[in-house]
Amino acid sequence: MCIAGGMIRDIGGGSEIATGRSEGSHRGVRPVATHQHLYYEGDDRTHVFVVESGWVKLYRTLIDGQRQIVGFANAGSVLGLESEDAYCNGCEAITPVAMLAIPVERIRDLSRTDAKFADDLLRQVGRQLGAAQRQIATIGVQSAEQKLATFLISIADLCGAGAGGEFDLPMRRGDMGEFLGLRVETISRKMTEFQRRGWISMPSVYHCRLLRRDILEELADGGEIEVSPVRCA
Predict the structure, then answer these.
(1) CA dist., res. 148 & res. 142, Å (int)
(2) Helices (DSSP H) in 76-227: which residue ranges?
(3) CATH 2.60.120.10, the chain: domain bounds
(4) Which parts of the chain register pLDDT below 50?
(5) CB count in 10 Å sphere of residue 222
(6) pLDDT digits 0-9 by tens, 168-224
């Protein structure tokens, strides 16, 4: 999947879905507690979900029964479009979430009758597809440092942190490792290295600040940063 985002209010600029007034949206925004599921893999696809706030993770169950995280999504993401009759992923809240659950039939009706809505929805799908394709490239060719740099920049941007800004990092290290194809120990070691080199700071385990975004961007673009060995005092 991908790291998905992009405010849903970009779709239709005040459309029924964006404002939570969509007929059949079950009285607008609904809360979902941390660790609760929006839907499970294999469930009948009855609704499309719009994340208004918070973060979710998307996962698939492998043939050996293990879970593989295939994406994270925050405010603005449209979930449930990637399948036809049944959800192909499970979707679990990793923070408190507010979301809209919109019947599939309602989405179909709006797409048929509102050309702008259909166009904007297609744009959102395109953004999420592009993120998925970037993720495939990341897993295939980047080093551990490059993967982590790309991930941190993506999350910072989705949180609106900007250059040098602080942002919440709501997912666990294990979730990050599953998504990036890295061991938990590698994630923890590289995060510590990034801090020692002064590239990031971590006021807490779930909060991060990019101190040298320029270096992280160079890494994310495929560059290799020459650094001297880290010495501990």
Answers:
(1) 9
(2) 104-113, 115-141, 144-158, 173-180, 184-196, 213-220
(3) 3-134
(4) 1, 5-27, 229-233
(5) 12
(6) 899 999 999 999 989 999 999 999 999 999 999 999 888 999 999 999 999 988 777
pLDDT of residue 138: 65
Element of type H or E holding 73:
strand 67-73
Would the pTM count as exceeding 0.85?
A: no
CA distances from 213 to 106, 129, 142, 152, 204 (A): 42, 25, 18, 10, 19
Query: Which residues make Cβ contacts (< 8 Å) with residue 194, sequence separation at least 6?
Result: 148, 200
Phi, psi (degrees; rounded to nearest 5) at 96: -55, 135
Length of the chain: 233
8 Å CB contact between 180 and 147: yes
Residue 131, pLDDT score: 72
Please give the DSSP secondary-structure letter assigned to residue 86.
B
CATH architecture of 3-134: Sandwich (2.60)
Which of 43, 28, 25 has the alpha carbon at shortest distance from 109?
A: 25
**CATH 1.10.10.10 domain position(s) in the chain:** 142-220
Please, how many CA atoms are within 13 Å of residue 108, restricted to the half-sphere of its CB?
A: 6
Question: Can you spell out the DSSP letters for 149-187?
Answer: HHHHHHHHHHTT--TT-EEE--S-HHHHHHHHT--HHHH
Contact 190, 146 (CB under 8 A): no
State the CATH class of domain 142-220: mainly alpha
For helices 144-158 and 213-220, the axis angle rounded to 10 degrees is 120
Residues in a beta bridge with 210: 200
Tokens 């290799």 belong to 224
DSSP 22: -
